[in-house]
Amino acid sequence: MPDPSEEDLRPVRDAIARGNLIEAIKLYRTIRGEGLKESKQAIDRMAADLEPGPPPLRVTGPLRDEDHARIHEALQRGAKIEAIKLYRE
Question: Is residue 39 within 8 Å of residue 32, measured between CB atoms?
Answer without folding.
Answer: yes
